[in-house]
UniProtKB/TrEMBL annotation:
Superkingdom of the source species: Bacteria
A molecular-function term among this protein's GO annotations: nucleotidyltransferase activity
Domain Phosphoribosyl-dephospho-CoA transferase MdcG N-terminal, first and last residues per copy: 27-97
Name of the protein in question: Malonate decarboxylase holo-ACP synthase
Keyword line: Nucleotidyltransferase, Transferase
């Protein structure tokens, strides 16, 4: 039987009546260096070896009880991703995407298309007005030093947009980043971090009336990712 590398997520390790409590010390896409990783029932076999190679996990968008944080463990295979929970007391370091924006890969890794486009984005300063950084395979490799990027890897970027982003600015940014990706021979996936959650830049820059915003409470369609929580509640009714 082939090893289980596709199981989605562990069951929460707290009691059903425990209240969930947001913790602002870490945000989605932050990389956490962990002292240990609790083993929960049903965990795929590859998780232990992946954590032994690099004791890091990424913060994912899910609600957690006090003392826990929702994380994703990354395996060696492209589809080896596992959602689980870490204990807050086991977090040794937090690395945000923007902490990696200025980091360079090792010389032997620099020729990969992902790093070519990342370097081009830095040099042209098309994101100079924003707080941003790499996520995905490039972010993981830069943070851990573990070779993760391949020749077919996309570049994933997180751009923090706490205030309204005009449609003209969004489209201009998408066009410029897409042009860089085309020249580098790869693809780019940009996520805007808005008050409503994570929103794909490509989707926001389109003509859709609503866009998908991903938050700890789950995905939902919103007309304005910068609207108040009350307005979003009215949209969904």
């Amino acid at each position: 039987m082939a090893p289980d590398i596709t199981r989605a997520c562990a069951l929460p390790p707290w009691t059903a009546n425990a209240p969930v409590t947001p913790d602002g010390r870490w945000r989605a896409h932050d990389l956490l260096k962990l002292r240990r990783l609790p083993e929960l029932p049903g965990e795929p076999a590859w998780v232990r070896s992946a954590f032994a190679r690099a004791p890091f996990a990424v913060v994912r968008r899910a609600e957690s009880a006090a003392g826990f944080v929702a994380i994703g463990v990354r395996g060696a295979e492209r589809n080896a991703r596992y959602g689980t929970w870490a204990e807050a007391a086991d977090i040794e370091a937090v690395i945000a995407p923007e902490d990696l924006a200025g980091m360079l890969p090792t010389i032997d890794r620099a020729p990969y298309p992902v790093y070519k486009i990342l370097n081009a984005v830095r040099q042209t300063r098309c994101l100079s007005a924003f707080i941003w950084g790499p996520t995905g395979s490039a972010g993981f490799e830069l943070a851990t030093g573990l070779p993760t990027v391949t020749s077919s890897s996309d570049l994933d970027l997180l751009v923090r947009t706490p205030t309204l982003l005009s449609m003209d600015t969004a489209r201009a940014l998408l066009d410029e980043l897409t042009a860089h990706a085309t020249r580098a021979g790869t693809r780019i996936d940009v996520q805007l971090e808005t008050p409503a959650g994570g929103v794909a830049l490509a989707e926001f820059a389109s003509t859709k009336a609503r866009v998908l915003a991903r938050s700890a409470q789950g995905p939902r369609l919103v007309a304005d990712p910068w609207a108040t929580a009350e307005a979003h509640a009215q949209e969904s009714t």
